[in-house]
Amino acid sequence: MTIVATRIDGRLIHGQVANLWTTKLNISRIMVVDDEVVNSDLEKTALKLATPAGIKLSVLSIDKASANILAGRYESQRLLIVARRPKTFLGLLEKGVVISELNVGNMSQTPETRSVTRSINVVDEDIQAFDAINAKGTHLIAQMVPGDVPTDFMPLLDKVR
Q1: What is the three-class DSSP state of 47?
Q2: How confident is the model at residue 72 (pLDDT cuts 50, 70, 90)?
């Protein structure tokens, strides 16, 4: 399978993703899926600068990402998909992309969010998306860095319902 890992991270590409995850998983391409960032030259430039040397970067919409994955465009690569919110991964699943496991990383706190863990904060829309992702058979875990033990995410989410 082309998709080595999937991760929700509000910061997209930063130290943990760029250095720890890509190294640990021997990633050859990071795919940022974000329907807004794809139209922002400034954000795309920042993501390019944050991507480690030797690793390819794609910044795509949900539609383009799913079409490319389903067409087998990354068959020879080790792909890490990163998005800010669970609704993006739900969109990929609804388009037919198979995601066996989703790592819920950093979701920043705002005045509207409820805290699931120290680094994962959700609104009702996120909870609905996580429930739908779980219902599609994707295993959700919380794991900030590769050295942490993965934790089953849905029981954590149940505490803030």
Answers
A1: helix
A2: very high
